[in-house]
Design goal:
290 residues, alpha/beta, globular
């Protein structure tokens, strides 16, 4: 069996948007002993800072929490996060620290200063047709777990891509600031081993949960309670209350929290074939990709 001590399962849809509150952030949780997943509301809406505080101070002990973002950048393909930059970090924790340090004056845990850094920007695709000379063209560089995602029928984008509706780069960089500020307070898999007790953070890809729940590839977003409940039924979860429209961020986290409850005990998901000790400290991994 995989780690089977968690009392709660939570999923967080993240956002790299500018501003004090991010409308794209949603948080859901379900209990180990069954029942429907529930949204966790925040007066005035969620911000990245509010999520940081929730993770650090409010989240129940014994929670497995998944964040829908990339917890690192490509490394294995070129032996470095930022080739040709002498400050290129040696591992993910040093990357988190670098992003947080360079962006320290950016409000609301944004990472705009890092994106525009003269050396870092060489590796990103940014708005206005600005593609750094080290970006790599096309989809951009991919982590090993993202290559495996493609083999499993998913459609990942490089975490170095900051352009387009499907980009995850801004979310990932802002998330790294949060990871640095949580470092030492909560274990983060696979950079830390899964603990025998207590809480744990993992990287998730909500489309993986949707496909496991019977949604068609390329049509993983749910915009109605009825569609969400059909997916929840497929993975053996109780339905949520209500009917009619639901925003896709809320639907994603409700389903993914329930999916974590079902899939976390599976040992193969904690020991992916291509997850080496080096990758576990540099690129990390997306939970659920085998």
């Amino acid at each position: 069996m995989g780690p089977d001590h968690f009392d709660y399962y939570a999923a967080i849809d993240w956002s790299g948007a500018v501003g004090p509150v991010q409308r794209g952030i949603a948080v859901a949780m379900c209990a180990r002993n069954g029942g429907a997943p529930n949204l966790i509301a925040r007066p005035g809406g969620w911000s990245r800072t509010a999520v940081l505080h929730w993770l650090r101070d409010e989240m129940p002990e014994g929670t497995l929490v998944g964040l829908d973002l990339g917890l690192s950048l490509p490394f294995a393909d070129r032996g470095a996060f930022f080739p040709e930059w002498d400050e290129s970090p040696a591992n993910a924790r040093a990357l988190w620290a670098l992003v947080d340090r360079i962006s320290t004056d950016d409000p609301h845990l944004a990472a705009s200063t890092f994106v525009d850094h003269p050396q870092a920007s060489r590796h990103f695709r940014r708005h206005g047709g600005r593609e750094g000379d080290q970006y790599g063209g096309g989809r951009g560089r991919l982590r090993i777990s993202e290559i495996e995602q493609r083999l499993q029928g998913l459609n990942p984008y490089s975490t170095l891509n900051l352009v387009g509706a499907a980009q995850v780069g801004k979310s990932s960089l802002t998330g790294m600031r949060v990871m640095h500020q949580l470092d030492g307070k909560l274990p983060i898999w696979p950079f830390d081993p899964a603990p025998a007790r207590g809480s744990l953070i993992v990287e998730i890809y909500t489309s993986l949960a949707a496909i496991a729940a019977g949604r068609a590839k390329g049509r993983t977003k749910m915009t109605s309670i009825e569609g969400l409940n059909s997916a929840l039924e497929t993975i053996g979860s109780a339905p949520v209350a209500g009917s009619g429209a639901i925003d896709d961020h809320s639907a994603d986290v409700l389903l993914t929290a329930a999916w974590l409850r079902v899939y976390a005990p599976r040992p193969e998901l904690w020991s992916p074939a291509r997850l080496t000790p080096d990758l576990a400290q540099t690129e990390g991994w997306t939970f659920g990709i085998t």
